[in-house]
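Section 5.1 Outputs to date
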Amino acid sequence: MSKLSRFNHFQPWRDGYYIAYNAMSGAVALMTNENYEVYKKIPEILASNNQPDLSDEEKELFKQLEYGRFLCDDDLDEVEALQFRQNMDRYGQASMGLILAPTLACNMACEYCYEANKKGRLSSQLVEKIVEFVEERAPHLAGLDVSWYGGEPLLAMDIIDDLTATFLDLAEEYKFKYGSSMISNGYLMTPEVTDRLVKNQVKTIQLTLDGPGRIHNKKRPLKNGKPSFETILKNIQYAADKIGVGIRVNVDKSFTNDIIKELLQELIDAGVHDKVGVYFGQLEASTQVCSNISESCYETADFSKIEIDYYRLLLEYGFRIDRLPQPMSTFCMAQVISSFLIDPDGDLYKCFNHVGDKDKIVGNIGAEINYQNPNFKHLFNFSPFQDETCSSCNFLPICMGGCPSRRADRGLTGEQLCDSWRHNLEPMLEIIALSRQQEMQRQKEAAVAAKE
């Protein structure tokens, strides 16, 4: 026997269709109005056990619903299954995630940066300690995922080169998969540096453009006061053909639709709009250092509303939309025992917001990890299954209780902890569906052009 998943989401769409989404599997589909009418009768059909009387078309619908996990086994407790999946990923050590900050120095002076004016660079001794840390675990690894972070990581490109070479040697020796990404401001990502990143198997890089050039240059100037936008955009023009480039736009209350339009037009003029992904980040006063910007920051519910408007602009201007609600087992590295952020002093952290705050370290790369360290447990111990509101929510698989730092460090409660999907899933699914249609049309046009 089967039953309907508790994580199903359906919404009417144009031309007599429904968009179907399951938060547990991440499956998205278009359903005809006729099939949706059958879907609504499924509880009755299952209760009467009249499945043998279904038409061939209805049987195919049931088959597709089971494939997308819109239907699941009657004896499956989905929340229990989700908790089991979370426990496997929380405590499993076959995969390791490291966020490495080879330096906390930066060439920019962003007005909202929570890292203030930090410095520091990994010494050769600490580089060796990191190698030993990975090598000790390498025989039991199935995968190692490294994300380069800072400060500005490209200020320490030599360290990235050296560590990557060693990681790749270990991956070959111990037969584990290696993956790499980077978060950078993009100013130093010249063609030469991009080629080095490709050689180092960095597959994706997140850059930040905080509005069109005239605004970005005020929000994210170089430390010498000079503008950065034009150089970053020029670097993107080369890098977008070599590596996956995601452009994050940090949004606060000063932004308007016209500002976003101006930025999108500049990306179009640069010829990169069909090569990059653009998404919008909620700017938050996450630490005391950046508390001066708190009044200009959105709460999540309000941010989710303007986020819809901005994604509609992406659609209108012909940008691809990569954002899709993805099921997760944990919200972030804070709740995984095999993931750490390592700073230039070799100190370990469980949250980006804690970097450089020595009161928040959970250990050091040169010492055995103490999982009973209060700073480790501070973020790790929360489980959404202990929260009645979270465990009963049909958005749970794509939120998993929200950001642990918001909950534990800032004392936020209720909807303040919810991801923006909780507020805008339906309109965002429509935008994503339209984006897929646009992409299919572009592919058809390209195929026709290729034949002519």
